[in-house]
Amino acid sequence: MITANYHTHTYRCNHAIGDVIDYAAKAAENNIKILGVSDHSPLPDRRWNAEKMDIDELDDYDKAFVSARKAYPDLKILKGMECDWVPEYRNFYIEELRGKRNYDYLIGAVHYFPYKGGWVCAYAPDSYGKVTEYADAVVKMIESKTFDFIAHPDLFGFFTLTWNEDAIRASREICAAAKEFNIPLEINGGGFRRPFMETSEGLRHPYPVDAFWEIAAYYRVEVICNSDAHLPSDVRSGIDLCEELAKRKGLSIVQLNL
Fold first, then answer.
1. Are 182 and 143 spatial neighbours (Cβ–Cβ below 8 Å)?
2. Statement: the pTM of the whole predicted model exceeds 0.90
3. pLDDT tens-digit profile of 186-209?
């Protein structure tokens, strides 16, 4: 049984509930021994702030870990952040978060990706058909050597209703890069909490996508299983299903070496 979860969010991202101490309390009740809290990272230009904490909240976020660690000394609580890939802010992630603030780990995640001089949100209708651009962004994120693992690399399942050659090629490119740079990919339990979608292959959750993880198994990438909790009560939700998927595909499950 997996006893680590590195992907949880606090109220500061504006679409989650609870603080670090609330997740710690639920982790202690649900056989989680290592709790990573990884809210959506702010950016210095306050881009996409509706779904992220504000940069002025970083000090308060740091203090929340001090309080939670004192309250739950037997629980290993790791301070992390889930970061979108905006290349000009790589130094912010490295110097401010890893350096000055001593974050334990950083997650790379593509929620927005470049397209024709602008940015497309992966959850927006205009993302449909842009799997190649999404994959390009994920590969560049991996190649940056900035992050400890990549969250929901098969998020493009949300806007890919037919598993076509573009989807296969995108999966291969992401998995090949992960293998080359030795970066684990996350099987994301949050996808199991999303409604089923009607696709050309039948009903499925937006992600995790079975076909993607078959390709990941071919490339022998390592995987991390997380809940992507936005509520303290979801601190373990989906992790067991992620573990079952990994074992079914013959994928190697790892923990962060922190």
1. no
2. yes
3. 999 999 999 999 998 899 999 999
Nearest to 177 by CA among 145, 199, 204: 145
Question: How many whole angstroms separate alpha carbon 213 and alpha carbon 68?
Answer: 35
* Surface-to-core class of residue 68, CB atoms within 10 Å of its CB (0-12 exposed, 13-18 middle, 19+ buried): buried
Domains and CATH numbers, the chain: 4-253 (3.20.20.140)
Nearest-angstrom CA–CA distance, 70 and 68: 5
Distance of alpha carbon 179 from its chain centroid, rounded?
Answer: 18
Specify the pairing of strand 252-253 against strand 34-40. Answer: unpaired
Q: Give residue 201's pLDDT.
A: 87
Assign 251 a pLDDT band (cuts: 50, 70, 90): very high
Distance of CA 29 to the CA centre of its chain: 23
Give CA–CA dist 48/220, Å, rounded. Answer: 34
The mean pLDDT of 60-80, rounded to a whole number, is: 98
Bridge partners (DSSP) of residue 252 are 222
- Mean per-residue pLDDT, 32-43: 98
Are residues 119 and 127 in contact, defined by beta-carbon separation less than 8 angstroms? no
